[in-house]
Recover the amino acids of this structure.
């Protein structure tokens, strides 16, 4: 391998590593929530000092509710949700999304909190 090709290969490896590092992984923020059932709906308050992004799904109809919740603010799942089939949620820092697709097929991993959060805007 010539020196020039070697340097080019090193530059490509470095660019790839830099791109992967730019996709910063953050821990989920489920500890910021404490769910309660009130008036036929499920809701939670963001008890942390930074905004969070919540994805919520009633498994019976698989309708997804997504909201950013400011510190101290409440998230309401919606009174019309049928919770008889169970429900699931993720909580990430605002601007982040779960690293697994938020879908009923991933409910076991999501219910077991086996996800991290990735930037919703990679490369930003």
């Amino acid at each position: 391998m010539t020196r020039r090709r070697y340097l080019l290969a090193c530059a490509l490896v470095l660019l790839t590593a830099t791109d992967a590092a730019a996709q910063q992984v953050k821990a989920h923020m489920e500890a910021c929530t404490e769910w309660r059932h009130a008036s036929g709906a499920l809701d939670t308050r963001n008890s942390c000092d930074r905004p969070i992004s919540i994805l919520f799904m009633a498994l019976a109809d698989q309708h997804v509710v997504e909201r950013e919740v400011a510190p101290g603010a409440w998230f309401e799942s919606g009174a019309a949700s049928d919770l008889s089939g169970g429900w699931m949620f993720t909580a990430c820092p605002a601007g982040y999304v779960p690293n697994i697709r938020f879908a009923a097929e991933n409910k076991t991993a999501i219910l077991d909190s086996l996800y991290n959060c990735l930037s919703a805007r990679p490369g930003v």
Q: What stands out?
A: The chain is about 20% helix and 35% strand. The two ends are 35 Å apart (CA to CA).
